[in-house]
Design brief:
Its main location: membrane. It comes from Enterococcus camelliae. Pfam families: MFS_1. It is found in: Cell membrane. Keywords: Cell membrane, Membrane, Transmembrane, Transmembrane helix. The chain has 17 helices and no strands. The two termini are 16 Å apart. α10 runs parallel beside α16 and α12 packs parallel to α14. The chain is mainly α. About 3% of the residues have low confidence. The chain is 81% helix and 0% strand. The chain has one domain: Up-down Bundle (Growth Hormone, Chain: A).
Length: 397
């Protein structure tokens, strides 16, 4: 078990630190120069639209090409993008390189999830996902805080050197990943090769639309991503603006608040991951309740950190549902199915960003209610479905 998990965790850690540092640096430059949330919303929402389109492509690529080669291609893509972004100076450089980085990261993350799921049983993958989530939160907190400090006190050259050094380490680590090239096996199976030639629309009709389990999951994720798009990506900048703070360190602390909550919740997820539905219900209701405190954030800056921390905690409790769903998909079509699902839900995130930014102009009271109602509706959808309302793997594994 450890031999399977550790290499994937290390690769995930190196790439996560690099991408967080690079992208936060870009977003801070945009915010510092324009000080308008509209520009940030456009850049970040564009990245989600790009991920939606990319998801259809990367799902097919991950299913039918060597995953080790995909990892190599992704890391080299990161390194080349970072290097070029340092030397190129154009008006739209920040948006362009942010989007390129997003496209490469979409391919890398889909390959990472699919490869890990193939190498492990359902329980092993859920445990890996919980541990990976724990590591991700520690690294995200660290990288957010370090990024804020570096951006404020250190030259941009040091930032780029750190990013490239970590990516080179990731490149070396890929050689030691315990990857089974399932594509080679599948090539020898005439039937699966025939499946690969199915038109995408036929595949969607037969494998997704007719599958009630998948369609309900898509609806649930689409609804939740209205909030997931706005809260971690735009809300910290909104808080930064109305508290009249101008420090990248304060911004990094706001972003880290979510990860601190996620970090504590990860311990619960690792130990109680088999109680899939119970954790998800608690997570959805808890997320809804914590945002009722948002209107009080004007009176005390500490409330901002409390709201985001509790959101991070309760949101992470819903992770076992996604892990369960991923591991339950037929491995022969896992990449393609997840790619199509991602395409749909990524479209919800920019919608949530624009709606959240628009609603925030009318005050935190309305914004608070809007965010909470989405979580409540998601809870209702979950408990009204026989498929997801009572998943308990304790007796099944």
């Amino acid at each position: 078990m450890k031999k399977k998990i550790i290499p994937f965790l290390c690769l995930n850690v190196l790439v996560l630190f690099s991408t967080t540092l690079f992208q936060l640096n870009i977003l801070w430059e945009v915010f510092k120069r324009q000080e308008e949330l509209k520009s940030l919303v456009i850049i970040i929402s564009s990245s989600f639209v790009l991920q939606a389109g990319m998801s259809l492509v990367v799902g097919i690529i991950v299913d039918f090409y060597s995953k080790r080669k995909i990892f190599f291609f992704s890391i080299w893509g990161f390194i080349i993008t970072v290097s070029i972004s340092y030397f190129v100076n154009i008006n739209l450089q920040w948006a362009v390189f942010y989007l390129i980085f997003t496209a490469i990261n979409t391919l890398f993350l889909r390959c990472l999830v699919s490869t890990a799921a193939e190498m492990m049983t359902t329980d092993e993958f859920m445990k890996y996902d919980g541990i990976a989530g724990l590591f991700n939160q520690i690294l995200t907190i660290t990288s957010n805080v370090v990024s804020g400090i570096l951006i404020k006190f250190v030259s941009v050259e040091i930032i780029y050197v750190v990013i490239i050094f970590l990516l080179i380490l990731a490149l070396l680590l890929i050689v030691f990943l315990p990857i089974k090239d399932t594509r080679v096996i599948q090539k020898n199976e005439g039937f699966h090769q025939k499946k690969a030639d199915e038109p995408i629309f036929y595949f969607i009709k037969e494998k997704i639309i007719k599958d009630k389990k998948i369609m309900i999951f898509i609806c649930l994720l689409f609804l939740l991503n209205l909030d997931y798009g706005y809260i971690p990506n735009i809300l910290p900048y909104f808080m930064l603006k109305y508290t009249s703070q101008t420090s990248p360190v304060f911004l990094s602390l706001l972003k880290s608040s979510i990860n601190i909550g996620e970090l504590f919740a990860s311990f619960f997820v690792i130990h109680y991951r088999k109680k899939v539905s119970k954790l998800t219900k608690i997570g959805l209701l808890g997320s809804s309740i914590c945002f009722l405190l948002l209107p009080f954030s004007h009176q005390m800056n500490l409330v901002n950190f409390i709201v985001l921390s509790f959101y991070g905690f309760f949101d992470t409790l819903t992770q076992p549902l996604f892990s369960y769903f991923v591991s339950s998909i037929d491995h022969r079509n896992r990449g393609k199915i997840l790619g199509i699902i991602d395409c749909v839900i990524y479209l919800a995130a920019p919608i949530g960003m624009f709606l959240g930014n628009f609603i925030s102009q009318y005050g935190t009271m309305i914004l608070s209610f809007s965010i909470s109602i989405v979580f409540v509706c998601s809870y209702i959808l979950l408990v009204k479905t026989k498929i997801y309302k009572s998943i308990d793997l304790a007796g099944d594994l």
